[in-house]
Amino acid sequence: MRRYSIIALLFFISLTAAADAERAGQNLLLYGNSPAVAGSGGTGVTGSGIQYFGLNPAAASTIERPAMSLYYGGFGDYIDPSLTLLFPSSYGVFGGSMRMMRVDSDKGLSDGYRLRGGAAKQITDRLSLGASLDLLYGKAGGSCFYAGAGLGATYRTAYEKSFKKGFGFYRPALGISGTAGVPFGSHSANSDMSRATIGYSFGFYRDSLLAVSFRNDISAMHGYGSFPVSWGLESVFADAYSVRIGGSYPAAYTYGDLSCGLGARFDAQYFSATLDYALVHKRGSEFVHYLGVSAEFGELDRDPPIAIVRSNELYISPNHDGTQDYALITLDVSDRSRIKGWRFQILDPNGAVMKEFKAPTRDVEEDLSVKEFFRRIVSSRESIVVPDAVMWDGTDANGAVVSDGRYRYSFMTWDERDNY
What are the phi and psi torsion angles at 300 (to 5°)? Predict the structure, then answer.
């Protein structure tokens, strides 16, 4: 009986090894070649930025300047380079990626060329959506193809709960992405890029120098029959240098059960660049390397909006006699970025707010109706309208005329980068 059990076990292992060899090229394309993702165990569905565009198209929504990334993986029995370009606009961020994969193997997908075109948009400060079109041409003993479409979303909260000595639960986020399509060709089983991923992340430690976060993703792939669970830890020092570690189980990607990586960010006036490296376990004592550089070009708006405020009256007497019954305060606001909000207040001699005028609250999810949600998807991002003038007739918030005294006004406006 023991002999038959050993034979069955060896047969199962041989079948698993054969399946792994058959899927090596396919898994390589599914795992991704961004060092930031690879170094964190393949996690990052909640991530933001060009590094995570291949995993979730919604990640591109935070891009504010034209961005480019170049990645290269391999240095062994395969090569895996890619190029990604993203361009922000008032309607969202648009771009695409091109990736080539070549594996030294006579089984499964040996050559692959994958294209992704996508768009992403911030619907609110917390919610981002993305969509993509995905194409693949490959060789696996014969030509094989894939055509599909993807959707993704991220939701980032502002919740923070501190415990002791820097530990806490900081800014949890949720992410989901999925690609569904049709593989076809003579060896279509090797070109199936359909996959669904859901995950979460949160920070659990931070101080003036260090911030540490945790990520956890679960995916469904291989005809939605494999469910690898991935985890990753990232430590960021001085908001510039990253150390990553991660892994996945079971080893549905053939490799990547353990990985680690480093990153460094450099900021200048007209560009910012990130260098990333990842070391990924393949099998036995074999490891593969990933290198990458990503950059954004152009000058970020770090200046607050320019505001000019003037009143046509220094004194008012709101007795409705037709003379100096009100003050007309003109507002002139300009900025390179989108104006996100404004507030005008009338203050009494003690600094208490007597009356307030402000922009409507547009970026709060509780006020987002279904109609408004879909309108924001297709509409351009426009500045909030700041009125040309505000009239004050000497009344408070309840409409009652205030007592005689010396009153001041305060005006604040801020842009989409929260410069104010």
Answer: -75, 145
Q: Is the dihedral of CA 379, 151, 246, 155 positive or negative?
A: positive
d(CA 68, CA 264): 16
Q: Classify residue 268 by burial, with Cβ atoms within 10 Å: 0-12, 13-18, 19+.
A: exposed
Between CA 2 and CA 8 the distance in angstroms is 10
What is the length of the chain? 420
The percent of residues above 90 in pLDDT, for the chain, comes to 59
Q: CA 60, CA 47: separation in Å to the nearest integer? A: 9
In terms of Cα–Cα distance, which of 73, 109, 53, 76 is closest to 222? Answer: 109
E-strand spans in 186-240? 195-206, 210-220, 229-237
Q: Please state the pTM of the whole predicted model.
A: 0.81
Burial 191-202, CB ≥16 within 10 A → b, else e: bbbbbbbbbbbb
212-233: pLDDT as tens digits:
999 999 999 988 889 999 999 9
**Separation between Cα atoms, residue 348 and residue 396, nearest integer Å:** 10
Instruction: Report d(CA 346, CA 331) in Å as an integer.
Output: 14
Query: What SS3 class is residue 101?
Result: strand
Exposure string (b/e) for 154-169, b if CB count within 10 Å is 16 or more? bbbeeeeeeeeeeebe
**Could you give the dihedral angle defined by the CA atoms of residues 189, 52, 278 and 144, in that order, rounded to the nearest 10 degrees?**
20
State mean pLDDT over 9-37.
63
Element (H, E) at 285: none
Task: Calculate the alpha carbon distances from 111 to 28, 145, 292 in Å.
Answer: 11, 11, 21
Contacts of 225 (CB under 8 A, 6+ apart): none
